[in-house]
Hints:
Elements: E1 4-7, E2 14-17, E3 20-23, E4 26-29, H1 34-39, E5 48-55, E6 59-65, E7 72-78, E8 80-87, E9 98-104, E10 110-113, E11 117-123, E12 127-134, E13 143-145, H2 166-169
Antiparallel strand pairs: 1-2, 2-10, 3-4, 5-12, 6-11, 6-13, 7-10, 7-12, 8-9, 8-11
Amino acid sequence: MPVCFGQTELEGVVLCVPEVFRDSRGFFVETYHAAKYMDGGVRAVFVQDNRSCSSRGVLRGLHYQLHKPQAKLVSCIRGEIYDVAVDIRKGSPTFGQWSAAVLSEANHHQLFIPGSFAHGFCVLSESAEIMYKCSEFYDPRDDRGIRWNDPELKIGWPVAEPALSDKDAKQPFLKDAELPIYPGCF
Length: 186
């Protein structure tokens, strides 16, 4: 089957299910093809690739860049993660709503998260490595975040007491955060 793209509850957030070719030697998967992905709703030109490794129970996020928004195409290349996208654009019809997917080395699924959405994930397996493409370069001066357990968001994280960085533990709640504006609003 060719790569499959599924629209999630949030406009622009796309679940990508690439075709995996398996045989006795292992597998082959095309993880990105600009023309196919653009046709499937992944509307971004990527300029930076990142890789991270975390252990079970680690939660990273919810992160975004305010003035230089990063669209992301997230893949889990080892282990399993619960990946979350949150619409934080003031004035958006889906403001404050979230969508999630389990990404793993076994299912090869990817999640495309448009710019101006917050992103976070938690590790479900013993450890996990993720790779993600970004549409904008990381700028530490533009780095922002939302508290992972904001009661207004009600994200169904599959971990009650995650391991957090000091920065993520102190992020503001949505109501107190500096947020992007939905196009055409205000």
